[in-house]
């Protein structure tokens, strides 16, 4: 381009430099004030999301241990931005109670089921992810709600009117903690205890009661799971204080698996 | 005024285009992690061998003759080993043509993820 006879009056190099310098400084300030916190926020949520995936991977391992009769299983997980810990079944503060009838139609002694947990707590964020009873659940600290990320395999076969409940106990000799890259080693060396009752065509009810740990409450997740159409099309009927009842059961199968966490 | 040499402007332009393209690629890569997880899960969980075994057992029972013990054993073993609700019904000689007698076998399999129903016609030579 050839510029001829352009009027250059009022053009100052000093002011031009000042304007450019201001633009650059404003850019740097905006990035450090707005961009960096946003980046951190994204980092936290992506950590939580990748932990959600890791928890589902551990859940799948548990499925292989329990339903596919494989005695040992380990998987490497990367715990980022928080801590993974175990809670032994015996010291679990979560409790499920299952009330059912025996083959003669009399109330059977209820099963008091303490599931035990593998739990991830986000260090920077508020997310808490818990693997309990074969389900992955998520809640936010200081808030009431909870959601089920991955469901356990409880099902009702409507053709045979059979309710199948798989209870998974998690046992750990001590409390394990893990951050960074670690291996979750699990084993199942004991036979599952199977309660298989055929009511001979008579329809009975089964009641599940969930009593949560007040500091670690997943009642919303369990309510949505049980009353939704995941197990049965119309869901369990909700009663008072965390009780859920299902009628029309002609055969009830409860399998109790004990998984031992060897190390984390 | 001397000439301004602006022939290198395309380099800056290319830089912009590439950075925008990289941004979108990063979003796509981010999404793909979730997709792989769910797809592989679905493939692993399909109980092909379990269904084969149950079919085989039921068809054998139909050939050899049914009994209540066999039925109860099959239901119990299926629940124990495969974690599945299994039901079958054998109705003998439902249909006949010139060469064969046909038994109608109904097989039901449900392990909570996969539900499988089949009606199988077992041909028996007259």
Tell me about this structure.
The complex is a heterodimer of chains A (264) and B (126). Helices cover 24% and strands 41% of the residues of chain A. Chain A has helices spanning 13-67, 219-227, and strands at 72-87, 95-99, 111-113, 117-122, 127-132, 135-140, 146-150, 155-157, 162-172, 177-187, 193-198, 204-211, 237-238, 243-249, 251-263. Chain B has 126 residues and is an alpha+beta fold. Chain B has a domain at 48-125. Chain B contains 3 helices and 3 strands. In chain B, β1 (85-96) and β2 form a beta hairpin. The A-B interface holds A 1-4, 6, 8, 46, 50, 53, 56, 60, 66-67, 69, 153-155, 157, 159-160, 162, 164, 166, 194, 196, 251, 253, 255 and B 1, 3-4, 6, 30, 33-34, 37, 41, 44, 76, 79-83, 85, 87, 108, 110-113, 115.
Secondary structure: helix percent of chain A: 10-25%
| Shape estimate of chain A | elongated
Helix content of chain B: 40-55%
Largest interface: A-B, 28 and 24 residues
Given helix and strand content, the structural type of chain A is alpha+beta
Number of helices of chain A: 2
Strand content of chain B: 25-35%
Poorly predicted runs of chain A are none
In round numbers, the mean pLDDT of chain B is 84
| Strand percentage of chain A | 35-45%
Rg measurement of chain B, Å? 31 Å
Mean pLDDT of chain A: 88
Tell me the radius of gyration of chain A: 27 Å
Please give a handful of descriptors for the protein shown.
heterodimer, A: 264 residues, alpha+beta, ten-stranded mixed beta sheet, five-stranded antiparallel beta sheet, 2 helices, 15 strands, 24% helix, elongated, B: 126 residues, 55% helix
SSE topology sketch:
The complex is a heterodimer of chains A (about 260) and B (about 130).
Chain A: H1 13-67, E1 72-87, E2 95-99, E3 111-113, E4 117-122, E5 127-132, E6 135-140, E7 146-150, E8 155-157, E9 162-172, E10 177-187, E11 193-198, E12 204-211, H2 219-227, E13 237-238, E14 243-249, E15 251-263
Parallel strand pairs in A: 9-15
Antiparallel strand pairs in A: 1-4, 1-10, 2-3, 2-12, 4-5, 5-6, 6-7, 8-9, 10-15, 11-15, 12-14, 13-14
Chain B: H1 9-45, H2 48-64, H3 68-82, E1 85-96, E2 100-110, E3 115-125
Antiparallel strand pairs in B: 1-2, 2-3
Helix pairs in contact in B: 2-3
């Amino acid at each position: 381009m050839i510029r001829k006879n352009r009027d250059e009056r009022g053009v100052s190099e000093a002011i031009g430099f000042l304007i450019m310098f201001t633009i650059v400084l404003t850019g740097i300030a905006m990035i450090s004030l707005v961009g960096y916190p946003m980046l951190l926020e994204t980092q936290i949520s992506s950590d939580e999301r990748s932990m959600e995936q890791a928890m589902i991977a551990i859940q799948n391992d548990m499925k292989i241990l329990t339903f596919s009769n494989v005695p040992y299983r380990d998987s490497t997980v990367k715990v980022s931005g928080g801590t993974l810990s175990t809670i032994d079944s015996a010291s679990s503060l979560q409790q499920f109670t299952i009330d059912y009838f025996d083959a003669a139609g009399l109330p059977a002694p209820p099963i008091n089921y303490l599931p035990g947990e593998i739990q991830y707590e986000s260090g920077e964020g508020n997310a808490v992810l818990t693997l309990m009873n074969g389900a992955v659940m998520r809640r936010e600290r200081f808030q009431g709600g909870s959601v089920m990320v991955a469901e356990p395999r409880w099902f009702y076969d409507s053709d045979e009117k059979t309710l199948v409940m798989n209870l998974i106990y998690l046992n750990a000799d001590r409390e394990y903690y893990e951050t960074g890259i670690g291996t979750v080693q699990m084993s199942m060396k004991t036979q599952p205890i199977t309660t298989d009752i055929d009511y001979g065509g008579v329809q009975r009810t089964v009641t599940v009661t969930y009593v949560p740990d007040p500091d670690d409450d997943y009642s919303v997740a369990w309510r949505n799971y049980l009353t939704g159409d995941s197990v049965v099309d119309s869901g369990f009927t909700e009663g008072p204080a965390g009780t859920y009842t299902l009628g029309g059961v002609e055969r009830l199968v409860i399998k109790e698996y004990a998984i031992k966490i060897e190390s984390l | 005024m001397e000439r301004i040499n602006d022939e290198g402007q395309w380099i800056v332009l290319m830089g912009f285009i590439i950075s925008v393209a990289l941004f979108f690629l990063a979003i796509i890569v981010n999404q793909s992690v979730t997709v792989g997880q769910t797809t592989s899960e679905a493939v692993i969980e399909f109980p092909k061998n379990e269904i084969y075994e149950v079919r085989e057992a039921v068809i054998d029972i139909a050939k050899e003759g049914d009994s209540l013990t066999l039925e109860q054993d099959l239901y119990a073993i299926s629940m124990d080993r495969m974690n599945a609700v299994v039901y079958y019904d054998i109705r003998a000689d439902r249909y006949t043509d010139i060469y064969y007698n046909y038994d109608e076998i109904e097989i039901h399999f449900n392990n909570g993820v996969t539900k499988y129903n089949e009606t199988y016609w077992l041909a028996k030579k007259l």
